[in-house]
């Protein structure tokens, strides 16, 4: 398994493509620029089979419908944020005077168990703190954690938004993400990739 990072939109939110040797792929957090993203996927010969959301803040959801409609694929999200996709007040876009929405997800997740989609197997971690329904997904085959806005290179997710909780976020990171092997690459919602080892040793918010 391999992955690609594709920053999208004004906030440069990282969309990720997890793919196998046949170029079947899963799309994580298509936040914006759906037309461009679809064109890239076509040009590169990818075959998307699902969209998986780490959470439903507006900068992560803006291109969901363009991508799902182009490829006729399902969307997965945590049940606690099932209404956020359709509600600008919940997903935060209304705070900035815009209404960014997507249709409801096809599948709601609420259990921390392996999620199998086609050839992909992901371990699901409920990692609240940045938002109530934040999820992180671990691919053993790719040695990668799709962490959304939970953990960053040298930082952690903000917790001053509605539903955020600083202590809960720290607990999510330390009791769940930090149980992974230290070589695991952490693929964050913004900025560069990092590793579990690096964040354990040097993240100032987690010392």
Can you characterise this structure?
- The protein has helices spanning 34-43, 58-61, 64-71, 88-91, 166-175, 196-202; strands at 2-8, 13-19, 24-28, 47-52, 75-78, 107-109, 114-117, 120-126, 135-139, 144-148, 151-152, 155-156, 185-188, 194-195.
- The protein has a single domain, classed as 4-Layer Sandwich (Metallo-beta-lactamase, Chain A).
- It has six helices and 14 strands.
- Helix 1 packs parallel to helix 3 (64-71).
- The longest helix has 10 residues, at 34-43.
- The protein has a six-stranded mixed β-sheet with strand order 1-2-3-4-5-6, with helices on one face.
- The protein has 207 residues and is α/β, with parallel strands linked by helices.
């Amino acid at each position: 398994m391999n992955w690609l990072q594709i920053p999208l939109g004004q906030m440069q939110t990282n969309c990720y493509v997890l793919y196998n040797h046949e170029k079947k792929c899963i799309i994580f957090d298509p936040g914006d620029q759906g037309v461009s993203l679809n064109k890239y996927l076509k040009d590169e010969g990818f075959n998307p089979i699902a969209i998986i959301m780490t959470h439903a803040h507006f900068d992560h959801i803006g291109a969901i419908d363009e991508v799902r409609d182009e490829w006729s694929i399902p969307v997965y999200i945590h049940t606690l944020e099932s209404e956020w996709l359709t509600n600008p007040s919940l997903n935060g876009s209304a705070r900035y005077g815009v209404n960014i929405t997507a249709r409801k997800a096809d599948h709601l997740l609420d259990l921390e168990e392996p999620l199998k989609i086609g050839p992909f197997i992901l371990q699901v971690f409920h990692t609240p703190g940045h938002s109530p329904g934040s999820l992180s997904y671990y691919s053993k085959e790719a040695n990668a954690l799709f962490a959304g806005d939970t953990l960053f290179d040298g930082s952690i997710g903000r917790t001053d938004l509605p539903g955020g909780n600083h202590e809960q976020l720290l607990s999510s990171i330390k009791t769940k993400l930090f149980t992974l092997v230290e070589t695991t690459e952490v693929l964050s919602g913004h900025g560069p990739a990092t590793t579990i080892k690096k964040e354990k040793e040097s993240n100032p918010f987690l010392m």
